[in-house]
Amino acid sequence: MNIWHTFLYIIVPILIPLAIGALLHRKFKFELGGFSKMLMYYYIPALAFVKVYEAELTASLIGTIFVFLAAQFILIVLLGHGVSRMLRHPKPLATSFSNSIALTNNGNIGIPVNAMAFKHDPFAMSIQMMVVTFELFATFTFGLLNASRAASGLKKSLLQFVKMPVLYAIIAGTLLRLAHIDMPEPLLTPLSTIADGMLSFALLTIGAQMASTMLKLHTITVLWSSLLRLAAAPVIAWLLLELMHIEGVTAQALFIASAIPTSRNSASLALEYNNEPGFAAQAVLFSTLLSSVTLTIIIQLSGTLFPA
């Protein structure tokens, strides 16, 4: 599979619903908060449960994945801190810059990319669900604490994290799979139906969100943020995957997930705590636009570096 084939058959089918979502939002002005809640509390938990339940996961593999994700997160945060100091960022910008490279949109964008790249393979998607869970935890701990610099905010955010249904969907799916318990068909069928609708709804939502953000590149910091998020992070992931001897589809899925663009939550946190919200919104939009090129390359490389 050459790079043009990857772009045409994986990235273009993702870009088209994004464009439709942007156009529809321009005309109808959707209430995007409601869209986000639909994804977080309806679509993603159903998808997480079904794909984890259908996949062949072991406890040792789950542990390996989370060790990798933690190591990757720490290294990218340290790298971002070093670059921020080199660029002499003031404290509010340094905080927003750190979140822009550490927090990724592995839910709304990562899930559709994984689905297209692996042709809806349950095993690959179950790995993506582990990534999503880790990203949620990172957002409600490091992301909020970094933005607020207040320990009182951390307790509140942890409570918010444990209320996330995707966490319990993954736990339930994992326990049923490891215990080899069959899910009754009348329960599994509606969950599968909901899960099947997640891909198009997530892409529509991202397109609408992009249409509501103005692109005004006026700082080199946005370019640095995108460079670290879309290029440096995959390099770190590749080194860790080689070091930990992770191979095949597992390595491919984690490698692709490492190159997902900046999370919208980083912009939301910057706006809430007034940490250069203009930069944060631009970082999200620019990295999302640029990822159509970089993800094409990363997906192509994943099969070469980690043959299944």
From TrEMBL:
Membrane protein topology class: Multi-pass membrane protein
Main subcellular location of this protein, as a coarse class: membrane
Cellular compartments annotated: Cell membrane
Top-level taxon: Bacteria
Transmembrane segments: 6-24, 36-53, 59-80, 123-145, 157-181, 187-208, 220-241, 279-299
Keyword Cell membrane: yes
Transmembrane helix is among the record's keywords: yes
Keywords associated with the record: Cell membrane, Membrane, Transmembrane, Transmembrane helix, Transport
Pfam families: Mem_trans
Family classification: Belongs to the auxin efflux carrier (TC 2.A.69) family.
Record PANTHER family: AUXIN EFFLUX CARRIER FAMILY PROTEIN (PTHR36838), SLR1864 PROTEIN (PTHR36838:SF1)
Protein name: Transporter
